[in-house]
Amino acid sequence: MTMLNGSRPALAITVGEPAGIGPEIAIRAAWALREEANCVLVGDAAFLALTAGLIDPSIRLSALSIQALRNGGLPHFGKERLAVVDVPLAAHVTPGTLDAENGRAVLATLDLAIEGAQNGWFEGIVTAPLQKSTINDAGVAFSGHTEYLAEKTGTPKVVMMLAGQPAGGQPYLRVALATTHLPLKDVPAALTRDNLAQVIDIIDADLKSKFGIAAPRILVTGLNPHAGENGYLGREEIEVITPVLEAARARGIDARGPYPADTLFQPKYLEDADCVLAMYHDQGLPVLKHATFGRGINVTLGLPFVRTSVDHGTALDLAAQGLGLADCGSMVEAIRAAMQMARARRA
């Protein structure tokens, strides 16, 4: 059953690792944006109610069982409260202390959010940070949100993109990655023509369908210093990247480059770009995180639904110090981005 509930997009907010800052920032951000989005928290209802009461006694939560959701879809909840789909934890939560007994419950929140997005209950998923080690310690091989979402939806290829608004009125920055969590020595071999072409196609398609950008402009970095300097510093630009960009332009995609990464990230170039495609993780993300940290978000491109996330981890040390210290700015921006993407998909 699809329940779009007018102009307020229904979004599943998975609360992440319970011992980290995820539950707090999810509650704070969802409550702050309740006028704009129907934010449905996915986690242990009793634990979230306790946490919400400690944050602000005026926060109102209403629990909903998984079975009720499956039987009737997402009911309409007004702006005066937040819905919580109850996914019970197995063990008591001590802030800042990981417990493998809760690993499978954390994963179950993701499973429920995916099920809901596929069934039309939710128009998108926003994920708080989780701890990979907890899930692996629970006996489930898990390498991260992005990979898990791709596997569970049968998506053969996804693309990681981070985005955010730099300070000082500089152009909104989107940085996608051709390769993600690979040792640097393995990156050149992973940059095949087929792989890079798929990445560019996904970026172009999602900028159109999920961001509402009619004619996306994609600026692409080189792999090597100075974009290879005509082959003297590496031949990947000549043998892989340039041919792929030429073929993309022949398909009608506005993909330009390859540009030297050390000079590309300047306002005079970025103001003419909808996305920068970097060749590896630490080529593009340090620039973006320096410019936007605390306001940046993570977006998974290529999925059959909207998925955004925060740009930081579980901050167990901060959680151990108590509530009120975590900054929910990135979660607020992740929810806002998911709202905008959901509306773009409607259009």
From TrEMBL:
Q: What does UniProt list as this organism's lineage? A: Bacteria, Pseudomonadati, Pseudomonadota, Betaproteobacteria, Burkholderiales
The UniProt function text for this chain reads: Catalyzes the NAD(P)-dependent oxidation of 4-(phosphooxy)-L-threonine (HTP) into 2-amino-3-oxo-4-(phosphooxy)butyric acid which spontaneously decarboxylates to form 3-amino-2-oxopropyl phosphate (AHAP).
What pathway or pathways are given for this protein in its record?
Cofactor biosynthesis; pyridoxine 5'-phosphate biosynthesis; pyridoxine 5'-phosphate from D-erythrose 4-phosphate: step 4/5
Family (UniProt): Belongs to the PdxA family.
- Chaperone found in the keyword field: no
Superkingdom, according to UniProt?
Bacteria
Sorted alphabetically, which NCBIfam families does this protein's record hold?
A: pdxA (TIGR00557), PRK01909.1 (NF002520)
Keywords of this protein's UniProt record, alphabetized? Cobalt, Cytoplasm, Magnesium, Metal-binding, NAD, NADP, Oxidoreductase, Pyridoxine biosynthesis, Zinc
> Could you give the subunit structure recorded for this chain?
Homodimer.
Essential cofactor(s): Zn(2+); Mg(2+); Co(2+)
Check the record and name the Gene3D superfamilies matching this protein: Isopropylmalate Dehydrogenase
Pfam families this protein is in? PdxA
Q: Where in the cell is it found?
A: Cytoplasm
| Reactions mediated catalytically | 4-(phosphooxy)-L-threonine + NAD(+) = 3-amino-2-oxopropyl phosphate + CO2 + NADH
* Protein's name according to its UniProt entry: 4-hydroxythreonine-4-phosphate dehydrogenase
Give me the residues that bind substrate, please.
145-146, 289, 298, 307
Note from the entry: The active site is located at the dimer interface.
Report the principal subcellular site.
cytoplasm
